[in-house]
Amino acid sequence: MSHCGANCILSITVVGFLWGATNPFLRAASRCHSIEKGGEGENNLITILTNFFKSFLDWRFTVPFLLNQSGSILFNVLVISFPVTVVVPCVNAIQFVATFVVGRLIGEKLESSSITQKIPSAEESNESSIPPLSGAVVDQIAEIYAEPQLRASQIQLDKNAEPPWDPDPKA
């Protein structure tokens, strides 16, 4: 592996931009296609395959998809040729920024999340909120992690014990 010079930086920028700039276009093209849902008696696999091939017939999806995949090929070349610790974070950062910028340029709006999660403070949380383990659960866990039992084929025979088969059947 070599150090990351001008060629590396240019390649990282191209891959990040290819991935980031094509994401909003792929999102927009996928919204344009109405998803046909199969009826009760119809084969869902056929419906999925039909929708899949219809999307590739639309240039608004195919062109960004092919550009995105060419970025993936170049990314694999980058990972082989340059330090992964430099390539991966830089490409991801550039992709993130390019997705935001290109998305805003083509008119995408930021959507706020409707999911909120409250993280309790140390005073609010208590151990009593975790239910205690019942005896049956503890027994099952103990059984799983107990000493393994030897199978019959693994039992060591005493030196003086006779084997379970006749070693000399002709005698």
From TrEMBL:
<keyword id="KW-0732">Signal</keyword>
<protein>
    <submittedName>
        <fullName>Transmembrane protein 234 homolog</fullName>
    </submittedName>
</protein>
<dbReference type="InterPro" id="IPR018908">
    <property type="entry name" value="TMEM234"/>
</dbReference>
<dbReference type="GO" id="GO:0016020">
    <property type="term" value="C:membrane"/>
</dbReference>
<dbReference type="Pfam" id="PF10639">
    <property type="entry name" value="TMEM234"/>
</dbReference>
<feature type="transmembrane region" description="Helical">
    <location>
        <begin position="73"/>
        <end position="102"/>
    </location>
</feature>
<keyword id="KW-1133">Transmembrane helix</keyword>
<feature type="signal peptide">
    <location>
        <begin position="1"/>
        <end position="20"/>
    </location>
</feature>
<keyword id="KW-0812">Transmembrane</keyword>
<keyword id="KW-0472">Membrane</keyword>
